Fold these 2 entries.
Entry 1:
Amino acid sequence: MNHPVPELFGSMVFGDAAMKERLPKAVYQSLQQTIREGSPLDPAVADVVANAMKDWALSKGATHFTHWFQPMTGITAEKHDSFLTPADGGAALMEFSGKELIKGEPDASSFPSGGLRATFEARGYTAWDPTSYAFIKDDTLCIPTAFCSYTGEVLDKKTPLLRSMDAISREACRLLKLLGKDCKRVTTTVGPEQEYFLINKEDYAKRRDLILTGRTLFGAPAPKGQELEDHYFGTIRPRVKAFMDDLDQELWKVGVYAKTEHNEVAPAQHEMAPIFETTNIATDHNQLTMELMRKVADRHGFVCLLHEKPFDGVNGSGKHNNWSISTDSGENLLDPGKTPAENRQFLLFLTAVIKAVDEYQDLLRISVASAGNDHRLGANEAPPAILSVFVGDELGGILHAIEEGRDYAAAEATKMTGASVLPPISKDTTDRNRTSPFAFTGNKFEFRMLGSAMNIACANIMLNTAVAESLRQFADELEQADDLAAASALLIKREITAHKRILFNGNGYDDAWVTEAEARGLSNLRSTPEALPHYTDQKNVDLFVRHGVYTPAEMASRQEIQLEEYAKTLAIEALTMVDMIRRDILPACVSYVHELSDTAASKQTIGVDNTTEVTLARTLSAATADLLTHVTALENALHCVPDTDAAGTAMYYHDAVLAAMEAARADADKLESMVPKTRWPMPTYSDLLFYV
Ligand code: ADP
Ligand code: MG
């Protein structure tokens, strides 16, 4: 607990320091080359690395190893094997071979594959990702791996992410070469800010909705919400502080650069922001962060809720995906420098991103589509379901000047350098910019539509590939040019003009924006079942096939899995709701009506005025009858799920089941305010959100 941070940091990671110390120089260099340049791994080094890794792990007290992977369930999967190998005379040795390091064969039949692999073809492979360091968790050496089927189709989120990183690297290097830069590898970097709620374990245990669905399906608003805005960045309560300190320590041990911990907008809501890293590592680390948040919360008597909308009426939780691109020499390609108007490289990359977001709005929307996030997109403090790009006034001015074919005016230039101590491009600190779903923030873009529970791989696969496609087109065009300067200027002007409709600096939460966006021809895919069918639109299939990120079959399977997941999530929620209404809420209401009626009857026999009891019993009886009507309607909706394709089923759940759930919930929430606290069968929003 009390180790100095530098000593603690990465102490459970087989990282660069451990490799340098434990690997022969040649092996170390070969592995480094793979890590740095993404070149294939030399199989000869695997045995040596495996052995060194095992010795290191044993010295840290590990007994098992696992291939740690990210199947399409959204969580991480692991199957533990011990290092134990029988030796002569009934003895045991601890062994770990290169083969075991490089490849695993978990049974793939129980992971979702969307029809890619029949259950009888159960074989699946995991393959080591040497670019993400192995680490120890729970006395187990975890080896980050990719997961694919026997026939080679990918069954996970990591493989396409790595492929998309290759694609953007390839195309960016081509463009940089034209600009006179010899660059072997370009990487995208990500810093995901993670929001979450902490509630008391005892309260959680009393709510089957939280246990089974991750969110409250009932709950009248607490008398106090977030209207006083007294929680954001507020003083952190001691118990929460202890949790955060413990979480930092755990994250540091496994090499996650946890940097900022603070209270968020909603009561009981908090955030952790790490320092950015290469995208696949940031993805692994975010998965690990979510897991550790849950685990550490438990030690402190809390439950960590990662659902996008655990509570109605207060903010939901998102994940801000801060994203940039940098070269192998560490140059940030989205850094505008002091004079962005003259920075051709910056303008080309900026234009590439703007074009990508405009052309693949639907894909970016789909990358953040889930039943949970549907409660959040477009709601309070969250970005709307419409994609737009915020570049700020300064950059906006430059792009406008380019579009109009004039020099960037001096007056505008002074505004930019108004105070010499300030950076030339102001960071987005203003309130209204918080509403942008995709905002330029100085030297990176912040994609804010992601839901808190999501694996960030999806969003980054879409982003990397879409930008790779812009860069490919730019490189193709400029490779043919005689005069690079003139050709780039022309290209930038043309593309900015073509895609300016996606640029929006105003308030994204304003209803007027929805109308304007429609007039601009921007897509507005409001719900998951509305968005997902567009995943396999021809232009999207063409994109992924061209860049070798997905095959058409892989895309169809992913679409199917996500549609099914949506329907299943809603089915579980609806069933949980029916169960809680029938077995908890209705009995509580009926028994209270009974008590009131008893009292009323007794009062009548002794000739005392019983108007109060009669009135209360009547109102409550009527409201209970409404709830019974609506829960019956919900049950009927569940009985009538049409036998159609995944898209049709998902849409039915959205239109019929979700609507029926909302009606039933409204009744239940009304009843909550009429039944004595002691008789209400579950902790209320006040209990959950304002514990001490
Ligand atoms: P801001 O004040 O603009 O929000 P911060 O410096 O607080 O910026 O960073 C917010 C998040 O963005 C952090 O997780 C940080 O590591 C990440 N970030 C900063 N620079 C980059 C970059 N070049 N690429 C990706 N993420 C970045
Ligand atoms: Mg934030």
Note: Residues 410-423, 426-432 have pLDDT under 50 and may be disordered.
Entry 2:
Amino acid sequence: MLYQRSSALFDEAQKYIPGGVNSPVRAFKSVGGVPVFMKSAKGAYLTDADDRNYVDYINSWGPAILGHTHPVVLEAIQKQAEHGFSYGTPTELETEIAKLIVDNVPNIDQIRMVSSGTEACMSAIRLARGFTGRDKIIKFDGCYHGHSDSFLIKAGSGAATFGNPNSPGVTKGTAQDTLIATYNDIENVADIFRHNQGEIAAVIVEPVAGNMGCVLPENNFLQNLKKVCQDNGALLIFDEVMTGFRLAFGGAQETFGVDADIVTFGKVIGGGMPVGAFAARQEIMDYLAPNGPVYQAGTLSGNPLAMRAGLTTLELIKSDKDFYNKINKTTETLDFEIGKILNEKGLKHRINRKGSMMSIFFETNKVSNFQEAYDSVYTCIFNNFFQQMLANGIYLPPSGYETWFISAAIQDAEIDKTLEAVRRFEF
Ligand code: PMP
């Protein structure tokens, strides 16, 4: 049996942990079968509890952009650990990473570190509300900005996978301040502004959506969003938890040439440690405690091990002038070659790709918003594809509403292994 030890571990885990997992999508509920329990990771590979290796296309849901356990990052963390794990005081290291990010990301003067993308987005909208004196926000159907109450309305990612995009436990009062628009539909956004004049603090968007599968902004959607926000005195929040330092060192703002008012980060900036952050120009960040009235804090914020892992990761990326070209090229090759094989099989599909993010939608030619993703994901070909790829040693996200993250550790050998698995796919 392929997943014998994982199966036993899962049985045991379910006794003590709800659903046996600490984050729902890990339970493989929508794809079926036993969730694979991993015990180590190096470079392009994960190793499971049964000692099977997998080419990893999740990469911890984005952070492991260099591949797993990069030796330079590992050594930096080990050295840092010798100086203590957490002080709850300011450190020089926090300023070092803050400066690196502020100097390289457009339109931000200051950055505040937190411990997750959820905290980053939750704090960003509080700051936007404090700054504008308005209550409502616009988010897009199928976008995910973490699990804080305001965002669990038509949320993507695991919330969509499990069919509960509107979670019980979110009060009506909170829900009514979150207005939902359709991704890539600027008229819809303009319409919502017309009906809520002077009430909308901010629009929050994944500049490339990764939580309804990978969905790209089309027809100058981001540029138009900026204009609608400006015209209405609302802030534009780019949730760059996935795209930050992945699409480019300056993130989606650099890639698309659109200026955001607040930017949130996570994943890559922590190098695999629990980190998030939010950043903005000075006049907005001045509203934040201790200088301003908008409160936000964290016991482990700016944790030295996490800052060291993040700083070292960012420095490694920055030192390789060809870094993004290489991972983007790998992703392009996967897109073209997988597409070719699926076409040869006569399997209708659409691959969406931007930079080193991509995903496959089956039984469709186009996915530009959540409804189109939904129509594709529920063909169940995805689940079959996922299981067969897994059995052949290729670890894909266990939901059609997730994005593949390609790491710098994926080389020709891993691409060949992946293509061979796709060739073997029977549907
Ligand atoms: N925003 C986006 C765009 C995300 O993809 C995620 C997580 N996948 C989050 C926010 C929340 O981050 P975290 O899981 O670290 O809380």
Note: The pocket of 4'-deoxy-4'-aminopyridoxal-5'-phosphate is lined by residues 61, 116-118, 121, 144-146, 157, 206, 210-211, 239, 241-242, 266, 276 (CB under 6 Å).
